[in-house]
Amino acid sequence: MPVAIITGASKGLGRALAEALAARGWDLVLDARTAEVLKETAAAVAALGTRVEARAGDVTDPAHRVELVAAAWELGGCDLVVNNASALGAEPLVRLAELPLDGLRRALEVNVVAALGLVQEALPLLSAAPSGAVITVSSDAAAEAYETWGGYGASKAALDHLAAVLGEEEPSLRVWAVDPGDMATELYAAAVPDDDGPRPEPAEVAPAFLRLLDERPASGRYGAPALLEGRR
Fold first, then answer.
1. What residues in the chain have per-residue pLDDT under 50?
2. Where are the alpha helices (DSSP H) in 140-221?
3. Secondary-structure percent of the chain, ordered helix, strand, coil, rounded to 5
4. Active-site residue among 146, 152, 188, 222?
5. Measured between alpha carbons, how far is 218 from 171 in angstroms, rounded to an integer?
6. What is the pLDDT of residue 231?
7. Cβ neighbours of residue 2 closer than 8 Å, sequence gap 6 or more
8. In this structure, what DSSP letter does residue 51 have?
9. What's the CA gap between 7 and 81, in Å, rounded?
């Protein structure tokens, strides 16, 4: 069975992707910071009949990234890395004039530095896989200027560029940056707590990611809403 590493997998989009891949028979290495929540998610995903290794920790810790890749190797290799773990930089979001620089550093460490570090660690396994792929979870804030989203958007823009360059440098892999669009997640609620408008559940968005794995289009940046509608 193919093997995927998913960061930020205990809830939200990460959990939805884990469940969608498990339903297809993928074996999984799941990461999150909160051990108890991750344990519950791993048990629910394993109930779908797949092998699941849960590793609680912080993706900014190099030793934890080594542990994630080692767990994938024990399952047979690594066919997919999903860099889904994200930090906002401030909760709720604030204007750049008020953004704590330590918060910006945290967003960059989680969203950019740790994402690249995990790919670097997994690259030998990804390159050996018959259909190796990397998915980085982006945001429309990476491409559009929204008040209060500056720090988070800057980190995701940097992640998009890393993904684009990685796709050029590793032509044997598929590297997709995916903007999932607004979703009903705890992350969005923490970012903008006063915005309670209707949004799709992560499970409704997960099929867009599956389409990429099914069709394996060229490396690049994709929007989940367009993928769900059948176009790029």
1. 232
2. 150-169, 186-191, 202-215
3. 50, 15, 35
4. 152
5. 10
6. 56
7. 25, 26, 27, 79, 80, 129, 131
8. -
9. 8
Identity at 179, one-letter amino acid code = D
- Between CA 13 and CA 18 the distance in angstroms is 8
Contacts of range 53-61, beta carbons closer than 8 Å, 24 or more positions apart:
53/28, 53/29, 54/30, 55/29, 55/30, 55/31, 56/31, 56/32, 57/31, 57/33, 58/33, 59/7, 59/8, 59/31, 59/85, 59/110, 59/114, 59/115, 59/117, 59/118, 60/109, 60/110, 60/113, 60/114
Residue 152 falls in the annotated catalytic set: yes
Residue 168 has which token pair?
A: 């050029």
pLDDT at 232: 46
Residue 112, token pair as written in the block: 């950019």
Q: How far apart, in whole angstroms, are the C-alpha atoms of residue 142 and residue 156?
A: 5
